[in-house]
């Protein structure tokens, strides 16, 4: 594996970052996760746009133009020779002193890792997953806006730990008002009487790129999609529940906090959207 580090390629074992990097010291930085399907980088432009939006929001200067960044990602994928891969793009504030003042960091560190990812097994995609809701709350945009894909993922990590301890594949966060927001690394959708619902991101969710793709695909298939707040109760009594994300793709949820969803098997709408999603990712990307 070759890792892009500020314009140079380093071998995986030699791709190291200083302990004085503020990404390490303070989580001061941003990232993106992007998929490559059959040689196509899926929704590269949207991911790069979100990266630059995150950077702008936290006043982080990325030392590349958007075009240069796109080229760097495409080249990093080529250099690694992978047709199916997961790209992790990280921009940290860079090396500074021990104060948290970012002014001590001269230059951002730009890192592109191309590797494989496997979040859920084939069996889980076929059978669906069980999830729980957890006490960890997703912050609503009165503090750090969840639209910023920052290196501060402690909330999400706590959620993962809670899921692991409960022996389930993923967990769902509520916000401080009790509305459903998202999973530790994916967005949530529910289906009720043929209508598809997903929480508005202002409740405290990342504006997932897969979420947007699924909303488009669902509308193209003739479904109504509504961005509407909902509670745990609405999830418990939904006909279908599914999650979307770059790593998760589209996966059905068949049990939430011990409540069986529908008949306990992946629902027809989730299955249809999964199939449409798989068709799309192979043809719609940057080569
Ligand atoms: N929510 C969170 C917290 C995430 O980290 C991710 C992953 O990127 C998502 C949702 C899904 O977003 P996307 O579809 O852009 O990968």
From TrEMBL:
GO terms for cellular component: cytosol. Its EC number is 2.6.1.42. PROSITE patterns: AA_TRANSFER_CLASS_4. Pathway: Amino-acid biosynthesis; L-valine biosynthesis; L-valine from pyruvate: step 4/4; Amino-acid biosynthesis; L-leucine biosynthesis; L-leucine from 3-methyl-2-oxobutanoate: step 4/4; Amino-acid biosynthesis; L-isoleucine biosynthesis; L-isoleucine from 2-oxobutanoate: step 4/4. Keywords: Amino-acid biosynthesis, Aminotransferase, Branched-chain amino acid biosynthesis, Pyridoxal phosphate, Transferase. It is an enzyme of class 2 (transferase). GO terms for molecular function: L-isoleucine-2-oxoglutarate transaminase activity; L-leucine-2-oxoglutarate transaminase activity; L-valine-2-oxoglutarate transaminase activity. The keyword Transport does not apply. Its cofactor is pyridoxal 5'-phosphate. GO terms for biological process: isoleucine biosynthetic process; L-leucine biosynthetic process; L-valine biosynthetic process. It catalyses: L-valine + 2-oxoglutarate = 3-methyl-2-oxobutanoate + L-glutamate; L-leucine + 2-oxoglutarate = 4-methyl-2-oxopentanoate + L-glutamate; L-isoleucine + 2-oxoglutarate = (S)-3-methyl-2-oxopentanoate + L-glutamate. Belongs to the class-IV pyridoxal-phosphate-dependent aminotransferase family. Acts on leucine, isoleucine and valine. This is Branched-chain-amino-acid aminotransferase. It comes from Lihuaxuella thermophila.
């Amino acid at each position: 594996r070759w890792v892009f580090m500020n314009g140079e390629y380093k071998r995986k074992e030699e791709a190291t970052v200083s302990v004085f990097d503020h990404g390490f010291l303070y989580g001061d930085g941003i990232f993106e996760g992007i998929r490559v399907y059959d040689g196509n980088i899926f929704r590269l432009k949207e991911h790069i746009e979100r990266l630059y939006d995150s950077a702008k929001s936290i006043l982080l200067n990325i030392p590349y133009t958007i075009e240069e960044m796109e080229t760097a990602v495409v080249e990093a994928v080529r250099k690694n020779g992978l047709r199916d891969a997961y790209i992790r793009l990280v921009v940290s504030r860079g090396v500074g002193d021990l104060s948290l003042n970012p002014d001590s960091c001269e230059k951002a560190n730009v890192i592109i890792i191309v590797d494989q990812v496997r979040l859920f097994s084939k069996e889980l995609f076929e059978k669906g997953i069980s999830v729980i809701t957890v006490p960890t709350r997703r912050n609503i945009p009165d503090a750090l806006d969840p639209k910023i894909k920052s290196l501060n993922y402690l909330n999400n990590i706590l959620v993962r730990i809670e899921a692991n301890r409960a022996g389930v594949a993923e967990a769902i966060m509520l916000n401080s008002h009790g509305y459903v927001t998202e999973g530790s690394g994916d967005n949530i959708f529910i289906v009720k009487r043929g209508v598809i619902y997903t929480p508005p991101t202002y409740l405290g969710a990342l504006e997932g790129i897969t979420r947007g793709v699924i909303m488009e695909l669902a509308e193209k298939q003739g479904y109504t999609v509504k961005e509407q707040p909902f509670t745990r109760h609405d999830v418990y009594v939904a006909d279908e529940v599914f999650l979307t994300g770059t790593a998760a793709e589209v996966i059905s949820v068949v049990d939430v906090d011990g409540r069986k969803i529908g008949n306990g098997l992946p629902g027809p709408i989730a299955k249809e959207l999964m199939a449409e999603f798989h068709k799309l990712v192979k043809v719609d990307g940057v080569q």
